[in-house]
Design a protein that fits this description.
- Helix content is 31%, strand content 26%.
- With 292 residues, it is α/β, with parallel strands linked by helices.
- It has a single domain (12-290), classed as Metallo-beta-lactamase, Chain A (4-Layer Sandwich), CATH 3.60.15.
- A 7-stranded mixed sheet has the order 6-5-4-3-2-1-14.
- It is globular.
Length: 292
């Protein structure tokens, strides 16, 4: 059954947070989060810091929150899950929200509601609210079909390569005449091309080699960070290779590394991804891609 949703919100993809990593800087972009409205469903993909305000500014009424997907448990993808759900509850959420995520997500959620027990219990007694703990359904995300309970929307998951994390999942959302794939965080992973085959939009993480060098230069633990980035993330040219092999219509470069350092312009990203023959978009917070 399709949930009640914000009635004036068209089907579209909104990038709420476009940077890789958890750090934030004055005037800079937010960590990873996206809103995908598809077949009338409101799907939030990852909940980095800033997701709640981003959703409101994207036009979503928070009490219409519907489906939430957490690709993996790095903090820049899950840090604001609890605050998002709590804020939705305080704005009138009264029906269940289904949250899909990797093993360990239930402990994240239980820890949050335990820390907020005083506030939750007080608002139930004082304001007559339903119990938030009864409204949130946590489901383990695994490879294959994701049971979202909607015949008009198919969601599938693919485990990708993001060491040292084991449970990290790409997601494919498929509706009639529109398909959107999120790579999640991943090293160059050729099976992702088949998973994304013929999709309309591929949202893929991307790094610039020169950007990695710059980050290593300014970070105290630079060499350890370099090892992690090179082992666990995808250079922009490899993201283009995945998109081209997949025959994607549009490639959206996201989870950008670097996203907010000076001296890295749009042209450099486009030159790095010129192997892809389709449309390439470099994401930014608030980017909107309408369903075509």
């Amino acid at each position: 059954m399709t949930a009640e949703t914000s009635p004036d919100l068209p089907d579209r993809l909104v990038i709420l947070g476009s940077k890789g990593g958890p750090a934030i800087r004055p005037g800079g972009p937010s960590p990873t989060a996206s809103l995908l409205r598809i077949e009338g469903r409101n799907c939030v993909v990852d909940c980095g810091l800033g997701v709640t305000r981003g959703l409101v500014e994207a036009g979503l009424t928070l009490k219409d929150l519907d489906l939430v997907f957490i690709t993996h448990l790095h903090s820049d993808h899950v840090l604001e899950l609890g605050p998002l759900l709590h804020t939705a509850w305080t704005t009138g959420l009264s029906r269940p929200v289904r949250v899909f995520g990797p093993e360990g997500l239930i402990e994240v959620w239980d820890g949050f509601v335990s820390s907020m027990r005083y506030d939750i219990d007080l608002r139930i007694a004082d304001e007559g609210r339903p119990d938030l703990r009864d409204l949130v359904e946590i489901h383990r995300l695994q490879e294959g079909m994701v049971p979202v309970g909607d015949a008009s929307l198919e969601v599938r998951a693919l485990r990708v390569d993001h060491p040292p994390v084991t449970d990290c999942f790409a997601l494919r959302f498929e509706a009639q005449d529109w398909s959107v794939v999120f790579s999640a965080d991943t090293a160059y992973f050729p099976p992702l091309a088949e998973f994304a085959k013929d999709c309309d939009v591929l949202v893929h993480e991307a790094m610039l080699a020169r950007g990695v060098d710059r980050i290593v230069e300014i970070t105290g633990n630079g060499e350890r960070l370099r090892e992690h980035l090179l082992a666990s993330h995808t250079m922009a040219p490899d993201a283009a290779r995945i998109a081209e092999t997949a025959n994607a219509r549009t490639l959206v470069l996201n989870h950008l590394i670097p996203a907010d350092l000076p001296g890295f312009e749009r042209r450099e990203w486009l030159e790095a991804t010129d192997a892809f023959q389709g449309e390439t978009i470099i994401s930014h917070d608030g980017l909107v891609i309408e369903r075509r």
